[in-house]
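Lecture notes, unit on binding sites. The following record was shown on slide 14. It pairs a sequence with zinc ion.
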Amino acid sequence: MRKIYGITMMKWKTDISEGRVLCLSCEELHSLGDNECQRCGAEIYQRKPSSIAQTWGYVIAATLFLIPANLMPMMVVTSLGSDEGSTIMEGVIYFLSHKDYGLGLIIFIASVAVPVFKLSVVYYLLLIVHLKQREKALLGLKLFHIIHIIGKWSMLDIFVVALMVSMVQFQGLATIQTGAAAISFCAAVIFTIIATEKFDPRLMFDN
Ligand SMILES: [Zn+2]
């Protein structure tokens, strides 16, 4: 360990520092110059090609889609001949004010808290790489694993909206449709997933 600017720098071992190539699928180590894993057949590279540029591109696209996803109506309810749209937050407030705390909370977590958290983490990981903050790399790796795990649940909100639509229509109360925000929301979720796929966490540990 050595001290730079009063910060203790850890000496990380990475596949680059050891002159090896790591398979990201099965975690087998290979000699430099190999480009196919002998154990699982996956394509291998020391670092994902143009990882940072692609991650930036997809995370910015996801951020841009998240804005209309929150400002435009997620549902359009037609009752007595008039259309009324409601955004995600209006939906959350509606359910909370009708003491439907569970549903309100699920929609808030799935469609506001989780997407914002995931995007913040991706920006944070990119900053760790750009500012060469290697002492933050372990924290970054943990956050990277967390957003990978919750990635599977990102479409939960779309299912909740679809469920509400079918329930209301089944009861014949009103005509209810998904609004323009639903498409933007799907795009934001998909671009966030691609952004995390493109990010190579090993970059945080490199010099
Ligand atoms: Zn492999």
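Take-home: The first strand starts at residue 2 and ends at 4.
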